[in-house]
Amino acid sequence: MIRKTRLFTPGPTPLLPAAQFAMAAADIHHRTAEFKALYSKVLAQLKEFVGTKNDVLLMAASGTGAMEASVSNLTSPGDRVLVLSAGKFGERWTSLAKAFGCEVDVVSAPYGKTFDLEEVRAALKPDTRAVYMQATETSTAIRHSVRGVADLLKAADSDALLVVDGITGLGTTHLDVDGWGIDVVVGGSQKAVMIPPGLAYLSVSERAFTRMGTTKNPRYYFDLLKERKNALKGDSSYTPSVALIAGLGAALDYIAAQGGGNLAEGRNKLIENAETCAAMTRAGVEALGLKLFAPDAPAAAATAVIAPEGVDSGVVVKELKARFAAIITNGQGEMQGKIFRIAHLGYFDYMDTIALVGALELVAIDTLKLPGVRLGDALTAAQKVFASRRPDEAAQQLAESQSSLAPMEVTAAR
Ligand SMILES: *Cc1c(COP(=O)(O)O)cnc(C)c1O
């Protein structure tokens, strides 16, 4: 059979065709009225997508660039910060904060777990200037309680800024940014917004902008106060990634169309979509007798699965690619060879998910030779999950049929 290559990786994720067309057509200069209009539109859309009244800034960088900006702009050498770490991306916060001379306190949880809020409360000191965490830790596929941490900071009447790496949390988990008081939320283009890597974005509270006026760490390219000043005029400080910004605009139009033209509603649909794909996958995996790596609070962004006893998880990654051209990811760092990860964030649907579950089922039977597994076991479990969520799907389809323009037509009309 022919094999269509499909990404099931938690970044980069599958590309939205409408965004690809918009990127191909984006030969405009960045110091023109045409670009300013596009840039202002996309920045306004991002606020709705993130779900905040705070300003959102865009930068030409992968997500880590905006993580770095959240450290360099918000801290001075010697500042005490608290990092909540339960995986490779949590460890990145620690490395970044140390690189900028911060005194780093760390509350950590074992890989596959989330941290204990009591430990977080105990680690919070009167002079803690900022708390850094992930919404979802992509390396282990656990979901953290951003709300729990935000509530705790409020209850402690802490001056610490709350900075959330929402790079795979945005579009897969609900964040009430202004209600909970999240000062910074970081996102990246190659995740739920369905476009290639290269753009980082972040929402920044007034409190955080004020802090930047007194912090001493060096910054030049990632100068958020400067970027904000320019963004208000529809400009970026340096040459922006014009094509990616055009693609992002088309992707946010598509997400809005999923919510009948309302972007916040569309984002909620996107979250529900990821939740459904994730629940189908988890059911399929468990029906094969495999164990989830982060069962306590599994993220909708991705599912991490423990390889069976004595089997290198790379075998599953290799077989899915060789037989079905399905690209999944191995574990990172110490988790390599022990787990494999399947993504659900962004442009994944029922067809993608059921196909991956079916392919995994064949690998489980033919390659892993898992005992007692029969053809159809994983698919049946995934189908049951989907069927149980059908009323929601039907409501979604009805809403779509009532919106005046289909997503592709919206783009063609632009
Ligand atoms: C992908 C990802 C990042 C950013 O990685 P980049 O390669 O810099 O885009 C950071 N945090 C999380 C949780 C991620 O999933």
UniProtKB/TrEMBL annotation:
Claim: Aminoacyl-tRNA synthetase is one of the keywords in the record: no
Keyword hit for Iron: no
Domain of life assignment: Bacteria
N6-(pyridoxal phosphate)lysine PTM sites in chain numbering: 191
Protein keywords: Aminotransferase, Pyridoxal phosphate, Transferase
InterPro entries per the UniProt record, alphabetical: Aminotrans_V_dom (IPR000192), Aminotrans_V_PyrdxlP_BS (IPR020578), PyrdxlP-dep_Trfase (IPR015424), PyrdxlP-dep_Trfase_major (IPR015421), PyrdxlP-dep_Trfase_small (IPR015422), SP_NH2Trfase/AEP_transaminase (IPR024169)
Limits of the Aminotransferase class V domain: 26-323
Recorded family membership: Belongs to the class-V pyridoxal-phosphate-dependent aminotransferase family.
Residues the entry annotates as binding substrate: 341
Name of the protein: Serine--glyoxylate aminotransferase
PROSITE patterns: AA_TRANSFER_CLASS_5
Cofactor needs: pyridoxal 5'-phosphate
GO MF annotations in UniProt: alanine-glyoxylate transaminase activity; L-serine-pyruvate transaminase activity
GO terms classed as biological process: glycine biosynthetic process, by transamination of glyoxylate
PANTHER family (alphabetical): ALANINE--GLYOXYLATE AMINOTRANSFERASE (PTHR21152:SF40), AMINOTRANSFERASE CLASS V (PTHR21152)
